[in-house]
Design a protein that fits this description.
This protein is an alpha+beta fold. Helix content is about 35%, strand content about 20%.
């Protein structure tokens, strides 16, 4: 029997971040995957980041996580989404080379001296009383103080090609059947979800000359704030649309699909629906956009993002031929759907540990989420907290005012999921404070305190923070009259009031270029530092107001509810409200406020109870 501090089951995005986080803290970690070649595999589209998702990546990066750096190393092109909008809702995205991404992630895992990769299937969990103490595998038993399970879409999974089914969590790969049985034996609440993938195409058979092309940004914003893209890649994506003929084929064959044929019971992601769902739900649309995403510099395979389908393979061929530019396109691999088990995330604490099962942590799609970035974020937090549990330390907790990571985990553990969960900027109440440019300021100190940030990133953060602090101080000492600012080339109200440079940067007409004309010493500030400081100055009034809102939020959020609290015994809490609260088991009063359907009267009674107990 082999002994470790932490065992991580699964080598996807959640598993890699969990293993790496535990290793950086100094724990001996076993990363168990059926094959070492599966580590870092991109199961779905060859792209990382986006709106909300890019925020998660920057926050993972602030904790010295992997996904941002690995994505940058494999990038085919970079784009900053929502560039024309405010900085709070801008998100970096990268098309990546699938093979290079997997190789870079495998290298990052191999570089961690504290990680041992074990090629095996996990067939069960070992326990001592209520504690989970290790795993059973096809190569023997492994013991550890903490186990992180990150099985993705493999738990009791079924693949669907039309009405034909097979067992698998990804095409050509077997499901995690024995582990699903072991998790069921623990009595955890479970559900069934589905997801899908489009047919892969041979790019050499696509008529690129008839299509619009989309290139990356000339001035790239990378996924990691540590990356420098001096010579950005410029491999283009193509754009096309489905047609009325495409939709007619889908309608004619709905009964041949697993969803509309009645074979699938699991609900799919609302924000990434199959083509069948699009045609049924949006029947008045004359077409749906398709983005033709290259899978690599040296790979002719194209991922047609927008036509996820489980139609029978022959029907898929006829469908593709109705799409402009794809009339002669060859299918390399047909699309399919996968149905899999997930665990209701309300069974988890905010540390992502299973309630009542000390030592067992869950992360990724097993918690009902969808997306690489959501999985990686959960893996990071689960890995940190598993390592802290193994070391006898208290878990870290990120609240909604701290990060998108905190928003996601609170949403999952408090509200649960009725469909695969995806991150959006609209989910965050305090998003003006949770920008991609200040993720390090918000979270790297937390990571340093937790011991998960390496020396290089800590030193880089300290240097960057010193620059920002120095410039903020400088902005407070520099001042000018409206007349002096007007000489910088901008019309401002000549009220004669002397204002600091920081106050002037809040004026909509005064940017850093104008400010540098008024105060030449600002021209020496490096662009990265200037950009962050300028945003803080521009939104200073709103950030101050939001800081007050955050303080009020935390006043309630800080009221911890006792473990095992009997909601049905609190005067003023009805049996129905107690049932809702029991299902969510909020750890703090602030989380109880967000439990769906709980009345203000019940919350008032709970608040009074929490204050008496504090």
């Amino acid at each position: 029997m082999q002994h470790y501090d932490v065992i991580v089951v699964g080598g996807g995005h959640a598993g890699c971040e969990a293993a790496a986080a535990g290793a950086r803290i100094g724990m001996r970690v076993a990363l168990v995957s059926r094959s070492a070649g599966d580590i870092g595999m991109l199961s779905c589209n060859p792209a990382i980041g986006g709106l909300g998702k890019g925020h998660l990546i920057r926050e993972i990066d602030a904790f010295d996580g992997l996904i941002g750096r690995v994505g940058d190393a494999a990038a085919l092109q970079f784009r900053l989404l929502n560039r024309s909008k405010g900085p709070a809702v801008q998100g970096p995205r990268a098309q990546v080379d699938r093979r290079r991404y997997r190789a870079a992630m495998a290298s990052a895992i191999a570089a961690e001296a504290n990680i041992v990769v074990v090629a095996a299937e996990v067939t069960g969990l070992t326990t001592s009383g209520r504690n989970v103490t290790g795993v059973e595998t096809t190569v023997g038993r492994l013991r550890a103080a903490a186990v992180v399970v990150t099985t993705g879409t493999f738990l009791a999974a079924t693949l669907h090609h039309g009405r034909a089914t097979s067992h698998g969590g990804r095409v050509g790969e077997a499901p995690a059947t024995a582990l699903a049985t072991a998790i069921a034996a623990l009595g955890l609440p479970r559900g069934r979800f589905k997801t899908g993938t489009p047919p892969r195409l041979d790019g050499r058979t696509i008529d690129w000359g008839s299509l619009d092309l989309q290139f990356g940004d000339a001035d790239p914003t990378t996924l990691s704030d540590a990356a420098v893209a001096a010579s950005p890649p410029h491999l283009a994506c193509g754009m096309t649309r489905t047609t009325a003929a495409s939709h007619a084929i889908v309608r004619a064959h709905l009964a041949d699909t697993p969803t509309y044929g009645g074979d699938v019971v699991g609900r799919g992601p609302r924000y990434c629906p199959s083509l069948e769902d699009k045609v049924v739900r949006f029947g008045d649309r004359d077409g749906h956009n398709i983005f033709l995403e290259p899978e690599g510099f040296d790979d002719a395979t194209i991922y047609p993002n927008g036509i996820s389908t489980a139609l029978p393979p022959p029907v898929q061929a006829a469908l593709v031929a109705t799409i402009p530019g794809l009339e002669r396109a060859s299918i390399v691999q047909p699309g399919y759907a996968v149905e899999y088990d997930y665990v209701d995330p309300r069974a988890l604490t905010p540390a992502l540990m299973v309630r009542g099962r000390p030592g067992l942590f869950l992360a990724g799609q097993i918690n009902g989420t969808t997306g690489y970035e959501e999985a990686a974020g959960q893996g990071l937090i689960a890995g940190i907290n598993a390592a802290r549990f193994a070391g006898g330390d208290e878990p870290i907790h990120l609240d909604r005012a701290t990060s998108y990571l905190g928003v996601m985990i609170d949403d999952l553990t408090t509200l649960g999921v009725s469909e695969p969960y995806r991150m959006f900027t609209s989910r965050a109440e305090f998003r003006l404070s949770l920008r991609i440019d200040n993720a390090g300021e918000r979270l790297t100190p937390r990571g340093i305190d937790a011991g998960v940030v390496g020396r290089d990133r800590a030193a880089r953060f300290a240097a960057a923070q010193a620059k920002r602090d120095a410039v903020r101080t400088l902005l407070g000492t520099l001042a000018a009259t409206p007349a002096a600012v007007a000489r910088g080339g901008v019309a401002v109200n000549q009220d004669g009031v002397v204002r600091s440079a920081g106050d002037w940067l809040a004026h909509p007409a005064v940017d850093w270029t104008i400010a540098s004309r008024v105060w030449p010493e600002l021209a020496a500030v490096d662009p990265a530092t200037a950009a962050v400081v300028a945003v803080d100055a521009r939104y200073g009034v709103y950030l101050a107001r939001q800081a007050g809102e955050i303080a009020a939020f935390r006043a309630d959020e800080a009221l911890r509810l006792a473990d095992g609290i009997a909601f049905d015994r609190i005067p003023g809490v009805s049996p129905e409200m107690a049932e809702r609260l029991d299902a969510a088991r909020p750890a703090m009063f602030g989380a109880a406020v967000r439990v769906a359907g709980v009345t203000p009267g019940a919350l008032t009674s709970l608040l009074a109870h929490a204050r008496r107990a504090a």
